[in-house]
User: What shape does this take?
Amino acid sequence: MAETHYIGGWAPGQGCYALAEMVGRGGFATVWRARPVDAPRRKGLFGRIGGGLEVAVKVIPVYSVQERSRALREGQIAENLRHENIVKTLEVIPGDLEVYLVTEFVRGAPLDVAARHYTLDEVSDTLVQILEALDYAHSQGIIHRDIKPQNALVDGRGRVKLTDFGVAYRAGDTRLTQVGYAVGTPGYIAPEILDGGNPTELTDIYAVGATARALLSHQPEELPARLLEFVNRATSPNPAHRPRSASAALDLLTSRRESTGAPTRTPTRTPTRTAVPGAGSSGKKKEASDSGWYTSQVLRIINGLVAGWLGYLGAGFLFNGAEALGVAAGFGVLGYLLPRLAALGVIVALAVALVRSQQAGLGFATLLPAVGGLWVAAGSVSGGMRRLPLGPVLAIPLAAYGLGAGLPLFLGTLMRPLGAALSAAAAAFSLIVYDLSFGDGVVPYFGFPAETLPKSLGPLGLLEQGEELFRAYPTFFMLAALWAAMAGVISLAEWFGVWALGLVLAVGGGILGYALEVSVTQEALSQAMTSLGLAAIIYGVVKYLGSRLGGG
Assistant: This one.
């Protein structure tokens, strides 16, 4: 059994940490996953640290007074920076032969790996987050001097965090590097630094532009003019042509659009190691699953399956089995590769198929593409909605197989709070409209039969009768509100890392909502409770296994 190594704890008020395993190695330091062993008795810079919290410990060997000064300086700079897009430094512990930097442990991936599957929107939002971190750091008189994708970490929710302030320049500090010696990484160093100039805010702006160029190199589509202008100006050899500050760069990049604060987490990863601050590029050799990438793939796969299912339903009105399967396969692949385009395409195709087969009138033919187009356009609210625009339609088959009431739990797991709530509410309405239009009018989980909508209605007649139905049955709105609340609770719990509490609140609140406001019969309530219970078991098992396999 390997011996456990401990650091710290030899000075009053200093924490003691047990080093669990090395998770990264750079040119000048190693990074360890660790746990505080005396956390209940001490307070760190950011308050009391709970005993179950994992931290990262960057171990910097020092062989001279100058190296010790440089290591302590890195820790002091990082310790004073408190921003959501900068890795938190909790403690700096000077040892005899090493300096230990204790930081938060970021589970995720370095940006150069994470961005391999980013969309243009996600690249833009990532750059926004980096610039917001720099805008804050610059306001504190700190120039990072080594901005590059490898020095930004992306957590499981898609939030970008800058790290590695080892060569940062602080206003008023004595320069520790020789004049004429260029600090940084080739390809990201501003030309004026190579010529012996002093680091400025424009030095970091150039590096962000170079980072943008690296991230965009993976994009198969043509870049929009806004991104091209940002890259060209930020990487201009002439500093005078660059944005004058990180704030000005933000304005240029976003056209004064405010950032959401995180892309998609969810986001969009290849299987990688657990990301840790300051590990260096060689740390990528230690790979682990990245929840953001898996979430992105799950969303795309589910969207592809739903697109294929809808394509098969629509093609079944017009073609035989083999041709319908071919159409379904085509829509399925398109739904995975280009989710929003496929969503709009399959909705239009389904509307055309319904009309040509005389299964629906002009009202449904116009309503489907109109509502579908609005929903696809609303996908910018959340990365999850962009990759799973057909998510609300899942309510229909899931209800048939007993999991419909559990759909909000899954949407909350895969999406951010706003996107999850909107998708869940739309799912409730999708289920209701389907049963009123193509079913027998008995909507699952309600327990009472409602009037159905004639398929032959025109656009105005469909809207008028639909409005009357929803006014007559206000319970329909209660179902949408309940699903939205459950999905929002799960998503918020995922966001704050307390999924078990979120599951209890969502399921408990859901059962209470069905019992008090939605289900009018014991059979309908039992149906809803069974569906919620099955979904909760699936969700809980997946989360538990994920946490065990991930070592969390």
In short: The longest helix spans residues 522-549. Residues 276 and 375 are 37 Å apart (CA to CA).
